[in-house]
Design brief:
Blueprint: H1 6-9, E1 15-19, H2 20-36, E2 40-41, H3 51-57, E3 64-67, H4 70-78, E4 83-89, H5 95-103, E5 107-112, H6 115-128, E6 133-137, H7 152-163, E7 167-172, H8 184-206, E8 214-217, H9 220-225, E9 234-235, H10 245-250, E10 260-270, E11 275-278, H11 282-285, E12 302-304, E13 310-315, E14 318-319, E15 324-327, E16 342-346, H12 350-354, E17 359-363, E18 369-373
Parallel strand pairs: 1-17, 2-9, 3-4, 4-5, 5-6, 6-7, 7-8, 8-9
Antiparallel strand pairs: 1-10, 10-11, 10-16, 11-15, 12-13, 12-16, 14-15, 17-18
Helix pairs in contact: 6-7, 7-8
The structure holds pyridoxal-5'-phosphate.
GO molecular function: D-serine ammonia-lyase activity
Keywords: Lyase
Family: Belongs to the DSD1 family.
Length: about 375
């Protein structure tokens, strides 16, 4: 067992703990890697969704950032950030809020992948005299949204927007498929595939004399394994700041790089079944089972001792709303976990676990306590 920080023992559980030293190391690691490849990082701020975290990730307020909700865009704009990509396909009912941010002087880029969205944007722009800055979404791996990189629709949509006064700022893809990689070679390949897709896509636009300056790719796995980012202007990643068990299973990080855990207390035993009950159920851990399809299944999270040292094969195996059940592996007994013991649980998927909390308790690099509020809502 490692040294326990005294103030942590008195904190009311469950709560989400950020290890700031690990967080800072993770932030620095990717920043350096992407700079060394001659590219810029546009971090996705949706994992922690906290202005206090963003201040470390992007100390320069004019740096590009990615957001997943307009609530984030508004909060980061309030904090002084000026270049934000709202990386979820736009719907017409959100354009009033986008316009309000543009009128405040924020460069908020929106994303689309259909002519229907383009027409809605053009019509709104005409009605309200707004020029929107647009990214076209490209599908690099058949994972989610986006147009195939060789689709003639890319050029068609770009021309239609351009002729109607809109700005085609970039093309964007997200290699969500890299999460299913079985080997690091597959992640390298996924990274290459998204770069190829985005280069092909931009050519479809530039053949019509439209500049389209930004080529945006990224996910945490591909950002850590991309080898050739030529022509690519920016890389996005979000979960890299804290990592999680899915990233560990993919070989993107080590267990002791994971900067997020849920701190919980042992509240009971079922000695017959060799179960330990804790006060962190799905309300604290989330229901994410991202490691279920990977080579090591960590249930609802890997359990660590109160100092944060992982306990091999000890996982939260079942969750109710407020209760977590740790069915102990052979060789372990409930007596090793007296009632009142504090434990930490590493998350499967950091974004999902963080979303269950309204604020995070931060163990700073100097052992102090900080609290980072989370931006809530959409
Ligand atoms: C559009 C987009 N870009 C970047 C990311 C960041 O990827 P990761 O979660 O792997 O860090 C995401 C995550 O879902 C995303 O949706």
């Amino acid at each position: 067992m490692t040294d326990v920080v005294p103030w942590l023992e008195t904190e009311q559980t469950p709560f989400l703990l950020i290890d700031q030293q690990r967080f800072l190391t993770n932030v620095e690691r990717l920043q350096q890697r992407i700079s060394a490849l001659g590219c810029q990082l546009r971090p996705h701020l949706k994992t922690l969704r906290a202005v206090d975290a963003a201040r470390y990730i992007l100390p320069d307020l004019s740096s590009p950032a990615t957001v997943s909700t307009l609530a984030e865009a508004e909060a980061f704009a309030d904090a002084g950030y000026t270049d934000l990509l709202y990386a979820v396909g736009i719907s017409a009912n959100k354009l009033d809020r986008v316009r309000a941010l543009l009128e405040r002087g924020v460069q908020l880029h929106i994303l689309l992948d259909s002519l229907t969205q383009a027409e809605a944007v053009i019509s709104y722009g005409r009605q309200h005299d707004v020029v929107f800055s647009i990214f076209i979404e490209i599908d690099c791996d058949d994972h989610r949204g986006g147009l195939p990189p060789t689709s003639p629709l890319i050029g068609h949509i770009a021309q239609r927007l351009h002729r109607n006064g809109m700005t085609i700022t970039g093309v964007m893809s997200h290699s969500g498929g890299s999460y299913s990689a079985k080997t690091t070679a597959e992640i390298v390949q996924a990274a290459e595939q998204e770069c190829v897709a985005i280069r092909q896509a931009v050519a479809q636009i530039r053949q019509f004399g439209i500049a389209c300056p930004i080529l945006s790719v990224g996910s945490t796995p591909t950002a850590h394994f991309a080898e050739d980012l030529s022509q690519i202007t920016e890389v996005r990643a979000g979960v890299y700041t804290t990592f999680d068990l899915v990233m560990y299973n993919l070989g993107v990080c080590a267990l002791n790089d994971i900067a997020m855990s849920v701190v919980t207390t042992v509240i009971g035993h079922n000695a017959e079944k060799n179960w330990v009950l804790v006060d962190a159920g799905w309300m604290a851990l989330s229901r994410d089972r991202g490691t279920a399809s990977q080579h090591e299944d960590f249930g609802y999270g890997l359990v660590c001792d109160e100092g944060g040292v992982p306990l091999q094969h000890v996982c939260v195996t079942k969750v109710n709303q407020e209760h977590g059940v740790i069915a102990l592996p052979d060789g372990r007994t409930v007596q090793e976990f007296p009632i009142g013991t504090q434990l930490r649980v590493l998350p499967n998927h950091a974004c999902a676990t963080a979303a269950m909390h309204q604020h995070y308790v931060v163990l700073t690099a100097t052992g102090e306590r900080e609290v980072w509020p989370r931006i809530l809502g959409w």
